[in-house]
Amino acid sequence: MAEITKKQIEELAVLARLNLSAAEINQLQSELSSILDYVTKIQELDTSKIPAPADKSATRAILRPDTVDEFVDRTGLIDADRLEDGLVIAKAVFERDGD
Amino acid sequence: MEIKDLTIKRIATDLRTKQYSAVELASAYLDAIEQDKCNCYITVDHDFTIAQAKLADDILQQGEASALTGVPCAIKDVLTTKGLLTTAGSKILQNYIPSYTATAVERLYHQQIVTLGKANCDEFAMGASNENSAFGQVLNPHDLSRVPGGSSGGSAAAVAADLAPIALGTDTGGSVRQPASFCGVVGLKPTYGRVSRYGLIAMTSSLDTVGVLAKTAEDCALVLQAMAGRDGYDSTSALEPVADYHQQTVAALPRLTVGLPKQYFIEGMDERIRKLIEQAVERLKKVGLKFKEVDLPQSEYALATYYVISPSEVSSNLSRYDGIRYGLHVEDKTLMEQYKKTRSYGFGAEVRRRIMLGTFALSAGYYDAYYNQAQKVRTLIKDDFDKVFKEVDLLLTPTTPSVAFKFGEKSDPLTMYLADIFTVAANIAGIPGVSVPVGQVEGLPAGMQILGPAWSEGRILNLAHHWQKIDNQLKF
């Protein structure tokens, strides 16, 4: 059984920026262990001859001609009430000492 | 006025012979939607709809209309529509009004299709039952105690319940084909890259496709043709020229060789569905098709591959929902707590589960064994299909192992994931597929899936169209 520990769940939650209750941690531990148990079977296959990255089905990025394309709908993208002096008003993301 | 069993062709004729106007047609659908018991729609905006219908009537008057002009359409709520609430079925976007429209939708607007509303769906297109929507589950119009399938449950149910003649859905692991099968309608998944993903709220970027649900394969072809083609805003959209899919769909059926992959007729699938497919095969043989058993040896790994690749890309794509620039924001003392609270409150259980799974598969020490390995196995799966398409023209399989199940029946996540077992391989390989009704099991619809090589949308729709004719499904 592919085991995933409670500690791993807690660490993953931090990486994923999620709050999990004790009950949710328990439940996820059991659910993820069972799902991982199932998906682990892909390791049975010998892929040593396949170069990485191996995604043949996705189209490679196709580039457009290197010419200037004027974008004229700036005001359409952001409402005027979110702009001040040409800058976008957003929630504070920097913390200062004492905040 | 009667809106039962309407198709694009029928509507196009009626509008031109003035049986009704586009505004009258849209109003009739809006009235019906008000009585909807199935919860097919998250957002309906009468003014928005009528304005589009008025524009369609003007174009019809001027004699510049196309087949799609004035045709009402439901749009899955993971496709952005400028000025119209777009939630992706999630609380975290419950107040999100996009500033742009998805290219696929914009191209339909260009032909004056009329938006009836934003169709309900599993949150961020994750699910196979539409039980994961933050805006309530969708009910299967054939049996209100059962799921419509997912994640495009609202789209499929709307078409089945005559609450839209056509609908847009999205298919990443089967999310158009599976609900089409459960609701008794036609569901098309095009080749990856056939339709632009610009404006499709990203779930699994290397697998997501925009698809169509309708009553007929012919309608699917008409919509596909209008949406398909290279888009400068989506670097993964293909340069492949857009064929006349409609013409290819209604053309005479050639003498094809169709493969029946043995891995798709397995223990554990409903025997009654197997019988329906076998009966369909016999009837198709009578019109000149040849069938042979084929082998897709890597089939058993497709679902596992999907459930490594998809959650991985999901965990990355959904990291943008931080409550800062748009969407739900939960206030707290520190930035980290704001992120965690916003996301934990805004995302439902299935979304959180997949984010966690993906974060694991991508983390240091596990990346090679899981994500990297899955991407390599993807090549093996695609190679299986490439080999098989040298032996046969198309493949025929059941769409789902069972008919629509009851609400709450698949409470274990892994059991729910197995509902997609016949549909995921096509997404992994990037090939197109269509589900077409094949009969009923105790009154519940069953679907038959036709798969083809990349860019063969015309051929798979052609077979689907002729099957519908043989099976007397084209009564409209």
What does this structure look like?
Chain A has 3 helices and 2 strands. Chain A is mainly alpha-helical and 99 residues long. The longest helix of chain A is centred in the first third of the chain and has 18 residues, at 22-39. Chain A starts with 5 loop residues before the first helix and ends in an 11-residue tail after the last strand. Chain B has 476 residues and is of the alpha/beta class. Chain B has an 11-stranded mixed sheet, with helices on both faces. Chain B is globular and about 65 Å long. The mean pLDDT of chain B is 96. Classes of the chains: A mainly alpha (99), B alpha/beta (476). The interface between A and B is large, with 48 and 63 residues.
Q: What global shape of chain A is seen? A: flat
Number of strands of chain B: 11
Uncertain spans of chain B: none
Silhouette of chain B: globular
Largest sheet of chain A: 2 strands, antiparallel
Q: What Rg of chain B, in angstroms, do the CA atoms define?
A: 21 Å
Helicity level of chain B, as a percent range? 25-40%
What is the tally of helical segments of chain A? 3
Task: Please state the oligomeric state of the protein chains shown.
Answer: heterodimer
SSE pattern of chain B, N- to C-terminal: HHEHEHEHEHEEHHEHEHHHHEHHEEH
